[in-house]
Amino acid sequence: TLRNGLRLFFFFNKDEPRVYTEIAVRAGSKHDPADTTGLAHYFEHMMFKGTARYPKGSFSRIIRKNGGIDNAFTGQDFTAYFENVAADRVGLALELEADRMQGLLLDHGEFQTERDVVKEERRLRSEDDPQGALVEALFAQVFMSHPYHWPVIVWFADLDAMAIEDLQRHYDTFYSPNNATLIVVGDIKADSLLPIIKRLFEPIPRGPSPKQAL
Questions:
Q1: pTM above 0.85, yes or no
Q2: Of 18, 88, 97, 198, which is least surrounded by CB within 10 A?
């Protein structure tokens, strides 16, 4: 655990010269306010909209230019951002993640445009997918008094009512090193990787300690 609270997990695998990195933030759908479902998922989309140092589109373009892949997903308990890169590119992936943990720019125009993207994702995964619709209905019935009651993606009504200020509040509350875990798996050496992680992540200040949902 770093001085600012970021927890680290290293798993060593010398079978292939690649490295998987993941930042898991304890901010999933169960942390969404009851009247703002889908906030954590919507914010996941906005994490790819750029920083002052790496403008919109730069993150994924840089990773892919260096032969890697990247993506993210939101669950009920956490949101995760990951990269799969060649072993000698792990520092690049970590640099990009450290940058957006503290430097994300939330643009109102991008926020409005992404609303339609999230709506289409809901149609694809829930409205037009019998299995997705069934799972959503099941959780809504089983967890009547628990945040698992609402869907990870969003209710349409909450999405229409969501404001960019809601996303900024979510970022300020949950996206800090003491509320995150960094996982690195693959062809790595802890004694050489740890100084890189400390250099990139320890300057990020500890944030609030958000109240964790059940």
A1: yes
A2: 88
